[in-house]
Amino acid sequence: MPYPLKAGYHFHYSRFRRPPYYEMPAAEAYTDFYGISYTICGDNLCYFPDGVSVFQTGDLSLIPQNVYFRTSYLSDMPREEILLKFTGDMISDLLQVLKVDSFDELLGGRELIVHLSGKDQEAVLRIMEEMEQEWNSYNQYSEIILKGLLNKLIILCLDRRKDTQKGAAGTRREKKKERLIEAIEYIRSHLAQSPSLEETAEHVRISPSYLSKIFISCLHTPYSVFVVNEKVLYAEKLLVDSNGSMAEIAGKAGFPSNTYFSDCFKRMTGMSPLQFRKAYKGTMWNGGFL
After folding, report:
1. CA–CA distance from 279 to each of 128, 238, 274 (Å)?
2. What is the pLDDT of residues 107-144, one digit of tens each?
3. pLDDT tens for residues 214-243?
4. Chain centroid to CA 246
5. Distance, CA of 110 to CA of 63 (rounded, Å)
6. Rounded to an integer, what distance in angstroms lies between the CA atom of residue 15 and that of residue 275?
7. Could you tell me how far CA 231 lies from the centroid of its own chain?
8. Helix residue ranges per DSSP H, the chain
9. pTM
């Protein structure tokens, strides 16, 4: 998650390894700096004020100033990502060459997501690993070196954005993502009603068979398994944050009976609901991991 830049610094490098089901407990803000986020592996759902985006392996996001966002899980896979933060001073020469006044203007005022191919992923990782080495041995020359690497990275992303916009495959991929996001939002807001594949497909305006294929191809998880996992994760939150009975929690999470609730919960967490509540009651729950 973003932290303010250190006093006197115009750049910051972070590399994160997130456990399965990690979810940011609150929104974070980019205030007087910009950002670049690269997903090395895994996937997550990112909520911005003007919409929702899916980030998967090979996705790189260019982030403008004054953006609030929060990330959530998409599957039971761990994920790894690199986050760069920098001020306008780091890219002033590049902006001058491109004849724009700010990074925000370059991005059109919102985050820009670029999906990179295998070769481009390798090229980006090489640049970022070089950044990491320089950051870990920071000295008076480091920002000069980091500035060159950062500009190289941004130019690569802008070039690949043009390639993606030209291809029909990129358009199909974005439509698939949009349907997946809509489906997940619908599921999470209707857990108590146990939304079926058919109901969710009707809501997102596609066939049940196509929606099923989207869950398998994007999340490597069948629709039915995803819904049960969502129910258990929501039940975890209710067990920790409320004093509701097992029957109340089972009903709110969409389980038809206490027995089925207990069986699913134990299969996923290794504990019964009562054991889980006893272990974690009173702690701050972040969606699967404390």
Report:
1. 40, 14, 9
2. 887 788 888 988 999 999 999 999 999 999 999 999 99
3. 888 777 778 998 899 889 988 988 998 889
4. 31
5. 7
6. 34
7. 20
8. 92-98, 103-107, 118-136, 142-166, 168-189, 197-204, 208-214, 223-241, 246-252, 258-269, 273-280
9. 0.65
